[in-house]
Design a protein that fits this description.
The chain is mainly alpha-helical. It has one domain (3-144): Up-down Bundle (Ferritin). 79% of the residues lie in helices and 0% in strands. The chain contains 5 helices and no strands. Helix 1 (3-29) packs antiparallel against helix 2, helix 1 (3-29) crosses helix 3 (71-77) and helix 4 packs antiparallel against helix 5. The radius of gyration is 15 Å and the shape is elongated. The protein starts with a helix and ends with a helix. The model has no long low-confidence stretch (mean pLDDT 96).
Length: 146
Amino acid sequence: MNEALIEALKVVQADHYSVYFKAHGFHWNVEGKNFPQYHTFYAMIYEEVYEAIDVIAEDIRKLGSYAPFKMSRFLELTTIEETEVGPMCEAMNIDLLSSIEKAIVTVNAAFDIATATKEQGIADDMAARDAMLKKWAWQLRSSAKG
């Protein structure tokens, strides 16, 4: 069993749950003049991230381990802090961007282990996650300008 990769993927999964919950909570609570755009934008993020969580869990199972599913375990594993952010999209964007940037770090760590251990399919999944997270990060950074 590839324990290092399994543990890295569990952190990736926990970080994705953290991003999912933040984006979903922000979707529910955003206010301000750009409400419609951000309400939709946050929904796009949480829906895409939610689908990715299943792929990550399946990668863990492919390696012969069980995927975490308890909230307490996700809180132990995640590199992303819980935050209280007010309803204004600017603060939500900054917080979500920081969370996504942390998730990119853990995805890249899992990618490196998968590549080193010749788990090409899992490396491909992590490369896809990296690309998507970087897209969300770019969009959040761009929305903060002007």
